[in-house]
Automatic annotation (TrEMBL):
Its cofactor is pyridoxal 5'-phosphate. The chain crosses the membrane at residues 201-220. Belongs to the ACC deaminase/D-cysteine desulfhydrase family. The keyword Transmembrane helix applies. The keyword Nucleus does not apply. Keywords: Membrane, Pyridoxal phosphate, Transmembrane, Transmembrane helix. This is Pyridoxal-phosphate dependent enzyme.
Amino acid sequence: MPTGNILIDRLLNAQITYISTKQYEDHRTEIMNRLAQKLARKGEKAYIVPEGGSNEIGALGYLNCMREMAGFIKKEKINAVYCAVGSGGTYAGLLLGKKLLKVDVDLNGVIICDTVPYFTEKILNICERAISRFNMKIKIEQNDINLIDGYVGQGYAIPYQEEVEIIKRVAKTGIILEPVYTGKTFYGMLQQLKVKKYKKVIFIHTGGLFSIFAFNKILFSYRN
């Protein structure tokens, strides 16, 4: 039986195209373009959303998130903001907002897949395209990006014991984290806070609640 997002897609009667891991890694954009062209020939119009919605348009959502937080960050003297980095759009948007609004706060991204060099290049690319497309009077350089590695575990969407223990502990406070993004990010943040001199931080909860149901057995295979 399907769970998570697939279940919702099925409920909405969406047409789902399945591809292999290799196809996803190497040819997902090409495949999406091909499907869009197929729909166009039928007189339909397709809008292609990139992985994670991570492009210059999608990043505007988290630019506005930083806009919403800016006054609070200043008033409460927040030292740092933490977020998950899984496709780069969230971090890119927050960084654009930080630069545009001159928000004095450290912006830390915990990567949950791939590598720091990969995401550094991708985030720079998203930011550069946004700056160009929307005529932003800012400049973003590599040293503006602070990414944290070491919490991916064995790979994307593969939970590990320390992460699962944190998910269970935080759940008792009424906040649900999931094993793919927020669980690893929250665990990474806690480890970082053992050595950082921050007094106040903001953790960006990026959602993903529906995915937790797909990890039912794994979550309870670890015993505290």
